[in-house]
Amino acid sequence: MDALLLATTNHHKLDEFRVIFARLPFTLFSLADIRLDMDVEETGTTFLENAEVKARTYAQVSGMLSLADDSGLEIDALGGAPGVYSARFMGANTPYEERFRVILEQLQGLPQEQRTARFRCVISLAEPSGYSRSVEGVIEGVIADAPRGTNGFGYDPIFLLPELGRTTAELPPEHKNRISHRGLAAEKARQLLENWPLSPSSKE
Description:
Layout: E1 2-6, H1 11-20, E2 26-30, H2 47-62, E3 65-75, H3 96-106, E4 116-126, E5 132-143, E6 159-161, E7 166-167, H4 173-179, H5 181-194
Helix pairs in contact: 4-5
């Protein structure tokens, strides 16, 4: 059975990936499993650039097929912020409750149709040779008037799905995994992995 390195230290992401990739013919490893204590700096200006540099770096260092992602929240009224800086918005150690407060203050008074936002996730798969493939998942929604829900993590409590009337933090994990940006991207990655390794002729 082939090995796949899930190159993240985020336990929430690891749990989601392990569920989605459970039936693939791969043995899944985390960075902790292989005792690889290394952070790859996210120097890109897009989710794609950050996901690719992480996947390729971890693949080269570990010698394993590696999966890395970059994701975040894009709020239209804030010019797409926090975007690629979502995890570092207001400082990496700032509690999300404080980030919510600032975002909601900036959107105060705006009607729902002007509070549009989306979660975007790019997942990259890379071989030690440097060859990589990337996929993307996006879920559209709006910013809620106040945080709601205790499931999920990150910005989930303020990301409202109008058609469901609930934030992603109010959804059961199995429901969220099916429709979330990471779930959608991971499903596309799962389809790539089902046919891995790709034939030489398909490696453009």
